[in-house]
Amino acid sequence: MHIPDGFLAAPVWGGLWVVSAPAVVAATRRAQRDLDESKVPLMGVLGAFVFAAQMVNFPLGAGTSGHLLGGTLLAAALGPAPAIVVMTAILTLQALIFQDGGLLALGANLFNMALVGTLAGYWPWKALAGGRFARAGLFAGGFCSVLVCALLCLAELSVSGVHFGAAAMSLALGVFLVNAILEGLITVAVAASLDSIRPGWLKAPAGAGQPVLWLLLGFATLLASAGFLVASTHPDGVQHLAQVTGLASHERMLFKAPLADYEIALPVSAWIRKAIAGLSGLLLTAAACVALARWIGRWRSA
Amino acid sequence: MKSGTLRRFRTLEDWSRGGSWLHRRDPRFKLLSALVLLAAIAVAPTRSFTGLLLASAVGLAILFMAAVEAGLPPLSILARGWVVLPFTGVFALLAWLEGNPHRAATLLAKSWLSAVTVVVLMATTPLDRLLAGMQSLGVPPLLASVVQFVWRYLHVALDQLRRMQVARLARGGERRFVFAAATVAVLFASSAARAERVHRALLARGGEAHFLLLEPLRMRPADWCLLGGALGSALLLTASGGWQ
Amino acid sequence: MSHHQPIVEVRGLRFRYEDGTEALRGVDFMVHRGERVALLGANGSGKTTFLLHLNGILRGAGFIEVCGTELADSSLKSIRRKIGFLFQDPDDQLFLPTVLEDVAFGPLEHGCPAEEAIRRARAALERVGLQAEAARAPHRLSAGQRQRVALAGILAAEPEILVLDEPTTHLDPPSRAAFLALLEGLPQSLLLVSHDVAFAARLAKRAVFFEQGQIVADGPIDEIVRRFGWA
Questions:
Q1: pLDDT range class, residue A262, cuts 50, 70, 90
Q2: The CATH number of the domain covering residues in A10-301
Q3: Which fold has domain C8-227?
C-alpha cells in the first residue's frame, strides 16, 4: 500500500502534502505535550519494533502469509498523537532508505497510513478499551485501519487516472478485506501474548467509554473513505446526485472558470471532474457522519 | 524475513559517507534538487512514445552522471530502482492487458526513475545530515529525533527477531501463526524494556536525546550550482517528454 | 577534598518498587577516592538497583553523598557529570548515528564547545583504541567494540567515579582481556558489578556481598568469594 512516485496526479500528491504536513506537525506538538521526558527513546524503540514486526511472516497456510501494519498497536500503547509521529517516522524511513513509497507520494502515504489509518485504528480501541469488549476493540481497530488505508489508496489512484475494471476492483477489495481481518487478528493475538508477559501494558486511555461516539467516529472514517472511493470511480453518479440536490450549479461555475481564462492543453477536465466528485463524496459522507455524531452526543448528554 | 535487505542497505550507508563534490553539498540543497527532479519526472507530459523514450533517456543520463560523479557504481545504483517492480508491475500488467502498453511503459519508467533519484540522494547523503537539513527546513525536532532513533534501533530489533526465529526453529517449532504472534509480543515487551534502559542511560549521561550535529550545515555557492543544475535538468526532462 | 573523606557515602538506603517489593533494606556503604570495589551477589539481590540510586535514576529513602555533595533534585545534574555509568548492554547507551558523535555527546551535554568536545572524544577513542572507527555507525561494530565505545563515551566526560554494571556479559575472552587491560590503567575510583569473579578480582581488592537488598559482608575479595562459595 505504499504508493510509489509516478502514479498519482500532481494535484493529488500535492494536495495531500498540503493536508498531511500540517497535520503531522500538529500531531508532533500534541505528542510533545502528551508523553513525559522519556518519550523519544520510547517512541523510537517502539517504532523500531513496529518496523521490524512489519517484516514478520504470519503464515496463513498454503504458502501465503500476512503482515502486520501496527498502527493500532502503536496507538493503543502510546496514544494517537505519538503513534502518528512514529508511523510518520517509519514511513519516511521506508521511503528514503528502502524506496518503499515515493517521496512525492509520501504525503499521500502519510495521509493514508500515518494519519487516517492510525486514527481509524485508535477510535474503536478507545471506544471499547477497559471493558469486556476490549479485544473486540483491538480487532475492530486493526480491521478499520487497514481497510481505510486500502480504500483511500484505491481512491487516490482512481482519481489520478488509474483505471480499475470491475474485476480488478473487486479483486483488490477482496485482498484488502482479507488483510484487514488479518490485521485485526494479529493485533488481538499480539495483545493477548503481551498480556501474559506484561499484564496491563496496553491500558485503556483516559476518558475511555462513551463507546457509541468513538465507534461512530471510526465508522464514519470507514464510510467516508468508501464514499471517496465510490465517488472517484463513479464521477457521473455523484454528478447526478449533485444535480438532484442542487449543488450542480456551483460545480459548473467552479470548473468553468479556470478553463475559461486559461487555455490549458493538459487533460484537466477529466480528472478535475473526478477529483471534485471524489472530494464531494468524501465531504458529504464525512459531514453526514459528523452531524450524526453530534446529534447523538447531544442526545446522550440530554 | 528479509535478511538480505539490511545487508543491501549497509552498502547504501557506506556509499553515503563518500567525499565527492556531490557528497559535500549541503543536504538541504540535495533534498530540494531531488524533489525538483522527482516533480519533473512526475509531471513530464509523455503522451507520445518518442516523448516517453526521450524523457527516460534524459533522466537516465542525469542519474548515471550523478552516480559517476559521486564515485558510485552507476549500474548498481540504477539496478536498485527496481524495488518498485512489485507494486508498479501489477498496474503495468493491468494496463497492458487493457490494451494500453503506453501507459504501462510510462508507469514503469516514471516510478523506476523516481526510485533511482531517491537512491542517488541517499547514496550521497548520510541519514543524520539529511535529517538535520530537514530540521532546518522546518521538520519538527521531535520527529527528526524519532526517525534517528527508529533507524538506530531497527537493527537491534531485527537482530533480536532473527535470534528468536533461529531459536524457535532449532527447537523444532514450525512456522505457525500463533508462534509469529508470540514472537512479535516478546519483541514488543523487550522493546519496551529496552526503551526504559535507554532512557536511564540518557539520564545518566545527563541529557535529553537531541541530536547535535558536530559539523554544522553551511550553504556554499556550489550548492546553488547544484540546485541550478537540477532545475535545468528538470526543464530538459519535461521538455523532451513533450516531444511529438 | 582530603583523602580521608569518602567519595561515595551511603547511609540507610531503602527502596521499594511500585508493586511493593522491597529492593533495598537499609544499605550502608562507603568508598574512598581511588578505591576499587566489586559488588557481588545473586541476581535480584539489589546490586544494580543500588547503583542506580547513586546518580539519582532511582530515588529511595536514606542519605547519599557523592564527591561531597548530597544527592538532591538540585545536585542531580552535577552528580551525573561526576559518575560515569556503563550499562550492561552497549546498545542501550549508544544511540547516536556515529561513534564520534556518541562519544562527544557527554562533553557537549556538559557545556563544552563543539571543537573541545570533538577533541576530547577523539582522545577518548584513542584511549580505547578505536580512533579508526570514529565515523562508523554503532550497529556496524562488534559487541566488544561497542562496549569500548561506550566506555570512551563515559571517559570523554571526565568523570571522577566509574560505575560498571556487568560490563563483560557480551564479551568474548579476547575482548574481555582487552577491556580489563583498559580498566586497569584508569585512575578513577571504580564500582564494579560482575558475575565474572576472576575479572573482578583482577581489578578490585575489596568486595561487598549483597543478599536480599542488604550488604551482608564487606572485605577483601578473596575472603568474600571463599566465604560465600562465589566462584
A1: very low
A2: 1.10.1760.20
A3: Rossmann fold (3.40.50)
